[in-house]
Amino acid sequence: MNTKLLSATLFATLAAATLTVQAGKSANPMVGGAPMYASKDIVDNAVNSKDHTTLVAAVKAAGLVDTLKGPGPFTVFAPTNAAFAALPAGTVDTLLKPENKATLTGVLTYHVVPGNVDAKSLLAKIKAGNGSATLTTVQGEALTARTAGGGVTITDAKGNTAKVSIADVKQKNGVIHVIDRVLLP
């Protein structure tokens, strides 16, 4: 069997299962030990995830809270604390300094794509692109999405690849896909 087809099928099945759970009135997807509510915005959900405290601190330091609480819609590829910890020593502390706000903002907006790019539409873009799809970020540069290893990967401008570990976390102003690596423009 074609491995790309198998990967796309597995990811679509996982995404469909996630959507089914989210459609239930009493079930909410869990991220970082906290339920995520489709009735809340990106920031109001993210602050409850114990796996995204570094991301939340960075969003606050960059002054992006009001933007991500706005109407959107936004698609956010949300790196975990472990993803930030995997950066070279001192990187996060340096980015969080007030004098590096512009650089931090660039890195964070590189994780945001305008619109609501859920798993189904992302897989359709990948299929239409013969195995890959280019996503233009709010920061202005591109990310490349592909199917691999039974899921979806996102590759940044430097060639680093992040895996989507949790797809389709619906928000009132968009969707979050949790990733295992920080993307760099």
From TrEMBL:
<feature type="signal peptide">
    <location>
        <begin position="1"/>
        <end position="23"/>
    </location>
</feature>
<dbReference type="InterPro" id="IPR036378">
    <property type="entry name" value="FAS1_dom_sf"/>
</dbReference>
<keyword id="KW-0732">Signal</keyword>
<dbReference type="InterPro" id="IPR050904">
    <property type="entry name" value="Adhesion/Biosynth-related"/>
</dbReference>
<feature type="domain" description="FAS1">
    <location>
        <begin position="39"/>
        <end position="183"/>
    </location>
</feature>
<dbReference type="Pfam" id="PF02469">
    <property type="entry name" value="Fasciclin"/>
</dbReference>
<dbReference type="InterPro" id="IPR000782">
    <property type="entry name" value="FAS1_domain"/>
</dbReference>
<protein>
    <submittedName>
        <fullName>Fasciclin domain-containing protein</fullName>
    </submittedName>
</protein>
